[in-house]
């Protein structure tokens, strides 16, 4: 879980870490609301013929979006965003192609004293303008990760341009592979420490990678596991391994990511267990698995299971090794839903469910290290080859083809408009309203009626489409991202005695409210509005008005969630600051709850003014 550092603060301000006040005052000027016409600034560098140029532009725009959000900056009356740098001695200038009320801005080429500036220099200067007296090591680390992210983005774009036609694909997997540029408000969206070119080709979803799992046999003396499906987890992994591999007596089959397996053998405690025979290295076995958008969760068409593997790579901000409490949380939520909560929920919202994580397998190392890099989650795989259950982040992700910046969402909306003879903007607004009913309303119900808020950002959320392409349901996935409300403790305890004791899932309501507003309100819904607007599908003010109507309506009120009132009534919202979090080297998955991420307060575009 990502967590709040600051509580209430002025827009753009921070507490708990030493960072600067907003770098520029916010001028009261109209911001550009449409792409610029004519002149060099109008050339969209995301569409450059050179993938390296397009990748550098994508990285630069992400940095500027982060800076604008985290400082409260706005462009001047001339439609140029200026970043004071070098202690105010100079400034970066970026012409605004599109200014988004939701934060999904687009920019032209950045210059310093009239000369173009490369993306790594932009990163270093912007970081210096964001944080007060950043350490040299922090700047160097950020610059290195920006460079790595941009290089990987260039490889992805080059690969996709070399193979422009998508193979006959499983819709679920195709959407998982569609995040070509990554999180639009993260400074290093494609940073992946330690992956060489061959590894990247195999392990990256955007490159349509596939690989065989590496398997260990684990002595039952060290085995740790849990299952809520009536079959022990070790039987489930044995089935996935198959009958062609004979396990040593008294062991269970443990699947590993091949990168992780190689790295683990370098750890003294694991090497010792391999030498002693407590672990047996079985090598790579079986059919190929495909990485999904998280990189470490893998799937295979026709398998009843996905696997959420431990992966010690630092992807964006965090090393992705499973924590034991997260594994326990997945079982707990499955049991809670099966104890009657799911039946009540789906009576109201039959199109929505949680993708369950009802089993896990791991190793209890001597000394009890957590995470230890060996634990794996077995996630149910409910999607058939024709099911259109699509990762929301993949649906809205930019696709740079055909001379325009579009997305799967854009292609879908334009097809619906052409088929009905209606305007694209009209269809987009209707699609958005249906989406709120199909995906957002059930999440509000689970919060208000069930006492559980979901960390429902776009990558954790799936939308289910009907044959025409309209939203009819959704799914949530992520055993890290459940928040049990303290105020609902008695209700949840009555449903499942002992809930939360080992999974460390209960939090104060005031903390949950801020997280929930960020993940569902800002990242998810405002991110969707920003994608519609920046891709020319709809007018953001129209969608914001539609959102207000939804939040103020009887269906949202009936959920009992406090989020609609918070979004409608708060002048500012608590928002994760990805640039500052990255700059300060925070790992968002470990450490005390109060120090995992930096949050800032931003002006709330949902509140009616």
Q: Any idea of the CATH topology of the domain at 385-603? A: Transferase(Phosphotransferase), domain 1
Strand arrangement across the biggest beta sheet? 7-15-16-11-10-9-6-8
- Main CATH class of the domain at 385-603: Mainly Alpha
Question: Which structural class is indicated by helix and strand composition?
Answer: alpha+beta
Per DSSP, the total helix count is: 18
How much helical structure, as a percent, in the residues? 25-40%
The rough form would be described as globular
First-to-last CA distance? 32 Å
Report low-confidence residues grouped into runs of 5 or more.
1-41
Largest sheet data: 8 strands, antiparallel
Radius of gyration in whole Å, from Cα?
24 Å
* Oligomerization state: single chain
What is the level-2 CATH architecture name of the domain at 385-603? Orthogonal Bundle
Report the portion of residues in β strands: 15-25%
Overall mean pLDDT stands at 90
Number of strands: 26
How would you describe the overall organization of this protein?
This protein is an alpha+beta fold and 609 residues long. Among the domains are: 154 residues, no CATH class; 219 residues, Orthogonal Bundle (Transferase(Phosphotransferase), domain 1). Helices cover 38% and strands 20% of the residues. It is built from 18 helices and 26 strands. The strands form 7 sheets. Strands 7-15-16-11-10-9-6-8 form an 8-stranded antiparallel β-sheet. Strands 1, 2, 3, 4 and 5 form a 5-stranded antiparallel β-sheet that branches. A hairpin with a 4-residue loop joins strand 1 and strand 2. Helix 1 packs across helix 3, helix 2 packs across helix 3 and helix 12 packs parallel to helix 15. The radius of gyration is 24 Å and the shape is globular. The N terminus is likely disordered.
């Amino acid at each position: 879980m990502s967590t709040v550092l600051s509580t209430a603060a002025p827009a753009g301000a921070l507490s708990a870490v030493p960072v600067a006040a907003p770098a520029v005052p916010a001028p009261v000027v109209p911001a550009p609301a449409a792409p610029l016409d004519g002149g060099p600034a109008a050339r969209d560098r995301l569409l450059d013929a050179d993938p390296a140029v397009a990748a550098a532009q994508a990285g630069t725009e992400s940095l500027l979006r982060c800076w604008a959000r985290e400082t409260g900056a706005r462009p001047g009356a001339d439609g140029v965003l200026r970043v004071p740098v070098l202690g105010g001695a100079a400034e970066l200038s970026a012409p605004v192609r599109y200014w988004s009320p939701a934060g999904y801005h687009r920019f032209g080429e950045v210059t310093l004293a009239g000369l173009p500036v490369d993306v790594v220099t932009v990163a270093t200067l912007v970081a210096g303008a964001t944080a007060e007296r950043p350490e040299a090591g922090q700047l160097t680390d950020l610059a290195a990760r920006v460079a790595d992210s941009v290089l990987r983005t260039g490889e992805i774009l080059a690969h996709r341009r070399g193979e422009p036609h998508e193979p006959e694909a499983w819709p679920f997997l195709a959407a998982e592979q569609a995040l070509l540029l990554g999180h639009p408000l993260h400074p290093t969206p494609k940073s992946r420490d330690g992956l060489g070119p061959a590894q990247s080709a195999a392990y990256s979803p955007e490159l349509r990678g596939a690989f065989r799992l590496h398997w260990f046999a684990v002595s039952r003396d060290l085995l740790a596991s849990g299952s809520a499906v009536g079959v022990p987890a070790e039987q489930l992994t044995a089935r996935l391994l198959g009958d062609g591999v004979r396990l040593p007596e008294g062991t269970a089959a443990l699947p590993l990511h091949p990168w992780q397996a190689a790295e683990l053998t370098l750890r003294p405690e694991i090497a010792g267990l391999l030498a002693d025979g407590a672990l047996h290295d079985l090598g790579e076995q079986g059919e190929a698995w495909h990485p999904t958008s998280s990189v470490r969760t893998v799937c295979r068409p026709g398998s009843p299971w996905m696997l959420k593997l431990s992966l010690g790579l630092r992807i964006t901000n965090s090393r992705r090794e499973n924590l034991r409490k997260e594994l326990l949380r997945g079982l707990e939520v499955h049991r809670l839903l099966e104890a009657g909560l799911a039946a009540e929920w789906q009576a109201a919202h039959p199109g929505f469910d949680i993708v369950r994580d009802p089993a896990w397998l791991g190793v209890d190392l001597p000394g009890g290290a957590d995470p230890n890099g060996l634990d794996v989650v077995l996630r149910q795989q409910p999607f058939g080859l024709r099911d259109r259950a699509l990762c929301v982040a993949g649906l809205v992700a930019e696709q740079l083809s055909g001379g325009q910046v579009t997305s799967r969402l854009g292609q879908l909306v334009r097809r619906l408009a052409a088929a009905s003879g209606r305007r694209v903007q009209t269809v987009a607004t209707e699609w958005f309203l249906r989406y709120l009913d199909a995906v957002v309303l059930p999440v509000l119900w689970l919060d208000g009626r069930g006492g559980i808020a979901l960390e429902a950002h776009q990558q954790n959320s799936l939308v289910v489409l009907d044959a025409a392409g309209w939203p009819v349901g959704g799914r949530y996935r992520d055993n890290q991202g459940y928040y049990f409300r303290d105020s609902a403790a008695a209700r949840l305890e009555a449903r499942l005695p002992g809930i939360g004791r080992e999974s460390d899932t209960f939090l104060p309501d005031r903390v949950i409210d801020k997280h929930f507003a960020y993940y569902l309100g800002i990242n998810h819904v405002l991110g969707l509005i920003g994608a519609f607007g920046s891709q020319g599908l709809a007018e953001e003010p129209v969608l914001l008005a539609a959102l207000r109507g939804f939040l103020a309506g009887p269906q949202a009120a009936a959920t009992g969630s406090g989020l609609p009132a918070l979004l409608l009534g708060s002048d500012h919202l608590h928002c994760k600051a990805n640039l500052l979090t990255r700059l300060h080297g925070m790992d968002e998955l470990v450490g005390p709850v109060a120090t995992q991420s930096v949050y800032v307060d931003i002006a709330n575009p949902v509140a009616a003014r």
